[in-house]
Amino acid sequence: MYTLVAIAGLGILCLIAEIFNLRKAIVPITILGLLGSLVLNVADYGKTLSYFNNMIITDTFSVAFTSLFIILAIFLIALTPVVHKEHKAKISDFVAIKLFLLTGAIAMVTFGNLAMFFLGIEILSISLYVLAASEPKNLKSNEAGMKYFLMGAFASGIILFGIALIYGAIGSFDTGVIYGALLENNNVPGWFFIGIVMLTIGLLFKIAAVPFHFWAPDVYEGSPTLTTATMSTLTKVAAMASFFKLMTTLNRTVPGSYITIISIVAILSMTVGNIMALRQNSVKRMLAYSGISHAGFMLMVFFSPTFTAGTLFYYAAAYTLAGIASFAVVLFVCTNKENEDVYNFNGLGKTNPLMAGILTCSLLSMAGIPIFSGFFAKFFLFHQVFSSGHVAIVIVAIINSIISLGYYFKLIIAMYTKESTAEKQTVPFTYGAVALIALVLNIAMGLYPSFALELIFR
Amino acid sequence: MENILQQIGIENYIYLSTLLFCIGIFGVLYRRNAIVMFMSVEIMLNAVNLLLVAFSTYHQDASGQVFVFFSMAVAAAEVAVGLAILVAVYRNLNNIDIDNLKNLKG
Amino acid sequence: MDVSFVLIILLFGAAATFFVGDKWASKAALFFSTAAFAAAIYVTYLFNQGMGVDLTMNWIKAPRILINFQGDGLSLSMLLLTTALTPIIILASFKNSIPKARSFYALIMFMAFAMAGTFLSADGFVYYIFWELSLIPIYFIALIWGSGDAESRRKSVIKFFIYTFAGSIFMLIAFIYLYQRTGSFLNIHLYRAFLTPQEQFWIFLAFFLAYAIKIPIIPFHTWQANVYQKSPTAGTMLLSGIMLKMAIYSIIRWQLPIAPNPAAEYMYVLIGLCIAGVIYGSILALKQDDLKKLLAYSSLAHVGLIAAGAYTLTLDGLRGAFLQMIAHGFVVVGLFYAAEIIQRRYNTTEISQMGGIRIQTPKFTSMFMILVLASVALPSTFNFVGEFELLYSMAQTNIWFAVIGGTTIILGAFYMLRMFQQVMLGEQNAKLFADITFGEGFVFVIIIAVLLFFGLYPKPIVDFITPDLQKILLQINRFN
Amino acid sequence: METNLALLLLLAPFAGFLLNIFFGKKLGKTVSGTLGTLTVAVSFAVTLFFFLQVNSTKVPVMVDLFEWLTMANFKVNFGFQLDQLSLLWLMFVTGIGTLIHVYSISYMHDDENMHKFFAYLNLFVFFMIILVMGSNLLIMFIGWEGVGLCSYLLIGFWYKNQDYNDAAKKAFIMNRIGDLGFLIGIFIIGYLFHSVDYNTISTAIATGAEVDMGWLSIAALCLFIGACGKSAQIPLYTWLPDAMAGPTPVSALIHAATMVTAGIFMITRMNFLFNLAPDVQNIIAIVGAITSLVAAAIGLVQNDIKKVLAYSTVSQLGLMFLALGLGAYEIAVFHVITHAFFKACLFLGSGSVIHALHGEQDMRNMGGLKKVMKITFITFLISTLAISGLPPFSGFFSKDEILMTAFHHNKALWIIASLASIMTAFYMFRLLYLTFYKSFRGTEEQKHHLHESPSLITFPLIILAALALVGGLISLPGSSWLNHYLAPVLAKPAVHHELDGTAYMLMGLAVVGALIGIGIAYTKYIKQALVPAQESEITGFAKVLYNKFYVDEIYTAIIVKPLYALAAFFRDVTEALFSSVIFGLGKAVNMLSNEGKTIQNGSIGFYLFAFVLGLCSIIVYIFLAK
């Protein structure tokens, strides 16, 4: 709980710091602050606490995910000053918005009440609308912001309608009460379930699952790259975690048809995401589609939600760490470039072997090649889905893993076998450091998967 | 209040707000003017607000009404951001027809 | 000291090679690979003394995965093969000026590490990790240091990677399934799983996909020739000398003991497929214009025979497969080295541009000739020992297998001698062919010495592997 | 002691090989040649020692070195067996080997790679010794393939000429076809007897072990196929005439005297097995007879001096197989020995002629050499008479035994064999007349250089001619030393023909037949002084003969060409097909991806529409599913 307050406070501090012309100190202070909140957060580990009439509940699940979000936010904020080095005045805004975004994300996993959940998701979304459209003179950014905003608002409406229906059926926003009511009484009104479905759809939109994914490639491409990084890492797993938490607490009476829908959506997401990614020129678009397919993979956790919290966390961590590392390289390569097309990466293996190596490893991790954590994530996931008896979907997932190699390797091939088009540049320290640390964490998780896997218990 | 609700029946509130919600959806789908689309979204949100209030009364529970305040605040914040984006688009394109926003695709 | 020591040397060697820089990379790689070989010999010695060389460590609790490296006759002999060939392969690249040498040699070392790990792992999951891990270095070696038109190289290399990956991931599913049944990935536990015939069928199929693509058995071989041709020779040697042995080793170590029923039931289909590969590869090798491609198809034929032997489920077949794996490993490395030496001087692998080399270089000719003869399994070479036992095992299954599979000794002689004639013999080539240097000759001499020694005295290897093969055979026959 | 001596016998030529291959060039031609010769001579000396020992003690010398191969149900030892049969073979292998080495010192003196020649020759002797000495079938197989290798190396000795290389390759591959048969035979025997040792198998058979007779016959047949390859029998004989591309000493040693008789050696070795397979014996006899006739017929019209001798060799080998098929192993062996003498002599003689004519091999360009090359002529004449089967030359005795055996078994075989003999007499004398009689038909240049060969060449000729003259003594009709000597290694007692009227009649007939052949040759080439026509002028059946019944062409058409066509088909069609299936999958997915791009059209309206559609369909589905 204190984490949430601390981070929100940190955001405000940033804005105040701008007033006092402490621009240079903003990022270091924020990072220190975030590290502090990380400690605060970890201090709560292992306990189940509730605050403000159950508005906020912290358990191992929320602590684990909150820590992940904070770490991701540290990476993203660390990248901010380099990206915006030409608009120093904006730094405080960007940092503050990201901190608010983080607040929203944390609220999304620590909620004990649907009101908190709704606030969290809206804080997150609104911050993202701003970030997506944060280059007002760039039409692409405008378009991205507009698309994201319109569809996001639409989705918010749906989520809200769902919440209203649930409230109508049970008479409370408190997840504990809802859980209890469901336990006692199986005979809930029919619209309760519609409410769940509408909530589900709203969250499927947030994690960009097919057929609610259309915004993702366009918005990813149009947004400034750092925002894309935020969306594809922090936002995606926040929505996923929140989704998971909601479904495990609210959806006690899951009918078979709900699982069918999830599996259809999962299969569609994987397949459409992977197939569409094959022919993309823009790396950001490609990563957007890859993100869609990963969302599909992550949806598979719902087949046996009682056991898969750890797997989801592992998968989320693996995916986001790889994502952060790749986006750091993309940011580095595509600074001062018109677009993020693959040809910009030509010859990176020669001009900058370190960054090329990091990107390669991250892509391999996303593709699920041992010994990167992405492989273990997929393995644990397949293992659990297999135990729950859904063999067919595992086979589909595997075929998709094979297809996904096609586009990941397209980029790798470009880096190593094509002639460079650009001059050799020196790597700014932050890019290198962020990418390297993310990669090291990634590999460490691969070498010692038990730690992350067993972080969440009940 | 209780009596009124019992007289009219909660179902009718649900139907009404669903209808409103659907009008909002159709507005979003049908219109191409960004401002009108915003307004349609607002209709959707307000339909929900109506529903929440109705349920709140139905359950004799104040939290539904509190929630409406949240949602109104959020909607206001949303629209603020949305309009800002709209202005940016207008500055670049000189109109706010969303059909002009088709550069990102594929 | 346990077997992991060898792995550590290789891994450390890879890192050290990378960090000493381009100038010293090749020497460092040679040093560490030789050290690994020495360590492997020492471990084998310990094993023969009856000392335990296994390593067991807990790794992941749920699902329960152990890091378990097991040294027995089979895995140690393959470990020795790997570590013996690696310095040879590194030595064979010495004369080439390789750009970014440190990455190149580090990748070779890393690949050796991954392959050695594959041979040693007793835990199916760890085995799978090493199995996949070995794919990455060869992918980069072929991609970055390969020859030929860049676009088609990219195409064939990516095809190779996706194809082999696709095959192996089904193996992972098989392992996951087995884990559901037994609660363990350890091979000894998996052997004991009582699977219904239908379960065995699917497990067998999943394994088969992985192995058939890697070996390769037709019709899964299409990646092979192009990759062999386009890889740098060191890469080709790694692929053909060691990597495809991983698959045959795995058949014997994993596939057959875990799911013996389908192997027995579909024996004729399997052997038939393998033998079809023998004939197909041999015939294809008759009409190749590219030396490395020709050798690739010859390799296809040879490994087809090895796989056929393994699928006979007889002691002779398994042992023959093992012996022939080792023999083929050496001979194919030697042959590709010969191709490399020609390529160094003529800058081409087109057979039509060769010929008339013998006049200029008697030493090289003799060595190349011996390798060709070993490749066609002339008695008194190691390859004959293996091929004889393989064909004998097939004869026990059905005499026609031996007859049809045996045509390889005719067709093999046909294409190899034809190749030798076109490459080496005839009127003097207009282009100058410098005789081989001491270093180059040294590599050949080692290979030839191994081939001839074990050709005449294979008993040490036979005695070393037979007890463990019998254990495997016991597992294979446990349902009968 | 015996082990060491046996190893000396075996390894001396190998040492010669090593020395020559590594140091030959430095040692110089004469030293290299002498070294090569001496090592073989050492082997000969040791063989002689063993021969005398075994001849007196009658106890074979067995040497077991180490375990070589381990199969599931049998083991193969690296062991040697010096018994009557192997020693007999060793005698003439090393003996004639030594002579031919001596001959080669002079013959090959102008060749820049002489040391290699001797190295290969030594290696050949080494492998031949292994073949003969081995105590089991697999050791024999080492030698078997080893001599094939040396044959390959020596046929292609002048490797600059791709035609020669083709011939070498052909020899190796055709041998390999036979070798596959041999291998299969070994497999079956190993499977049946759990051993491939001669002694074990023969004991098993002698003690009446229960063996599947059907498989046994198949094994015998497979072994015979192996023998066919090595000993150039139908249908695998075509490599031998082509093998004449090698230097003449090679033809003499390998392709006449020793290597090609390996098939006979093997069948004699396994006589106990073949005795149990009468069907296979019949096949052997028929194949042998037909081979002898066909080869002799082709030999009638050939113009290349070495080709004639080559076909004659095939034909004579056919006769030996005929004898084998009839169960008369000792007679086959007898003919092997006499044939080794006179055929080696003939080849060396022809080599001497070729040497004198600087490589000319076409008999149409020879003639009248009688006067210039006296020694060559006389030795050649003796050998020709021997091969034609005229008494008292050695060939008469051995060939007559074969004919007599055939007569007693099957008259048709006897007629075929006799016909072949008559033809032999004809073409051999045709050869003799065309080469040595009348006047010289070559160029002036050649005529100018005509000379008798040096003594190193003539010396072996004289010895061989002497042996060809008196070789028949070892197995005179009635009292045969050879039959007696070989008795321990043969399962059945030797066929004994009474010297009755029939026998004398047959001898007479054989002599008359030979004289008829000689007579025809005499009328044609001496009386009418005909010279064989140019290729274009040959017509009718002669043309078919001249073109060797078009067998090579047929083989090319039905085996080699289709194989190449298949290879090209596989390469261009099936490989592309397999490949396109895989690439096709990738392409299909890529196409799908391209199509998918049109759906992602950038319109918010459409996106929202899809959103709502998804929403509605999910809700509808949920209700329907309920």
TrEMBL record, chain A:
GO biological process, one term: ATP synthesis coupled electron transport
InterPro entries: NADH-Q_OxRdtase_suN/2, ND/Mrp_TM
EC number, as in UniProt: 7.1.1.-
Any one Gene Ontology molecular-function term assigned to this protein's record: NADH dehydrogenase (ubiquinone) activity
Domain NADH:quinone oxidoreductase/Mrp antiporter transmembrane: 113-404
Main location: membrane
Subunit and partners: NDH-1 is composed of 14 different subunits. Subunits NuoA, H, J, K, L, M, N constitute the membrane sector of the complex.
Protein function: NDH-1 shuttles electrons from NADH, via FMN and iron-sulfur (Fe-S) centers, to quinones in the respiratory chain. The immediate electron acceptor for the enzyme in this species is believed to be a menaquinone. Couples the redox reaction to proton translocation (for every two electrons transferred, four hydrogen ions are translocated across the cytoplasmic membrane), and thus conserves the redox energy in a proton gradient.
Name assigned to this protein: NADH-quinone oxidoreductase subunit N
Organism, as annotated: Flavobacterium cerinum
TrEMBL record, chain B:
Superkingdom of source: Bacteria
Gene this chain is encoded by: nuoK
InterPro entries: NADH_UbQ_OxRdtase_chain4L/K (IPR001133), NUOK/Mnh_C1-like (IPR039428)
Enzyme class per UniProt: translocase
Signal peptide: none
Subunit structure: NDH-1 is composed of 14 different subunits. Subunits NuoA, H, J, K, L, M, N constitute the membrane sector of the complex.
Catalysis performed (reactions): a quinone + NADH + 5 H(+)(in) = a quinol + NAD(+) + 4 H(+)(out)
HAMAP family, alphabetized: NDH1_NuoK
EC assignment: 7.1.1.-
Transmembrane segment boundaries: 12-30, 36-55, 67-90
UniProt membrane topology term: Multi-pass membrane protein
NCBIfam families for this protein: PRK05715.1-2 (NF004320), PRK05715.1-3 (NF004321), PRK05715.1-5 (NF004323)
One MF annotation (Gene Ontology) recorded for this entry: NADH dehydrogenase (quinone) (non-electrogenic) activity
Protein name: NADH-quinone oxidoreductase subunit K
BP GO terms, sorted: ATP synthesis coupled electron transport
Family in the record: Belongs to the complex I subunit 4L family.
Localisation: Cell membrane; Membrane
Keyword annotations from UniProtKB, A to Z: Cell membrane, Membrane, NAD, Oxidoreductase, Quinone, Translocase, Transmembrane, Transmembrane helix, Transport
Cellular compartments per GO CC: NADH dehydrogenase complex; plasma membrane
UniProtKB/TrEMBL annotation, chain C:
Keyword Nucleotide-binding: no
InterPro entries associated with the record: NADH_Q_OxRdtase_chainM/4, NADH_UbQ_OxRdtase, ND/Mrp_TM
A Pfam entry, by short name: Proton_antipo_M
Molecular functions (GO terms): NADH dehydrogenase (ubiquinone) activity; NADH dehydrogenase activity; ubiquinone binding
GO biological process: ATP synthesis coupled electron transport; electron transport coupled proton transport
Protein family per UniProt: Belongs to the complex I subunit 4 family.
Subcellular compartments: Endomembrane system; Membrane
Record protein name field: NADH-quinone oxidoreductase subunit M
Membrane-spanning intervals of the chain: 6-21, 28-47, 73-92, 104-122, 128-148, 160-180, 200-222, 234-254, 266-287, 294-315, 321-343, 364-386, 398-420, 432-457
Record's GO cellular component terms: endomembrane system; membrane
Keywords from the named record: Membrane, Transmembrane, Transmembrane helix
Record membrane topology: Multi-pass membrane protein
Domain NADH:quinone oxidoreductase/Mrp antiporter transmembrane: start-end pairs: 125-408
TrEMBL record, chain D:
Catalytic EC class: oxidoreductase
UniProt cross-references to Pfam families, sorted A to Z: Proton_antipo_M (PF00361), Proton_antipo_N (PF00662)
Documented EC number(s): 1.6.5.3
GO biological process, one term: electron transport coupled proton transport
UniProt GO molecular function: NADH dehydrogenase (ubiquinone) activity; NADH dehydrogenase activity
Domain NADH:quinone oxidoreductase/Mrp antiporter transmembrane: 135-424
Regions annotated as coiled coil: none
Domain NADH-Ubiquinone oxidoreductase (complex I) chain 5 N-terminal: 68-118
Compartments it resides in: Endomembrane system; Membrane
InterPro entries assigned to the protein according to its UniProt record, in alphabetical order: NADHpl_OxRdtase_5_subgr (IPR018393), ND/Mrp_TM (IPR001750), NU5C-like (IPR003945), Proton_antipo_N (IPR001516)
Protein name: NADH-quinone oxidoreductase subunit L
Provenance organism: Flavobacterium cerinum
Organism classification: Bacteria, Pseudomonadati, Bacteroidota, Flavobacteriia, Flavobacteriales
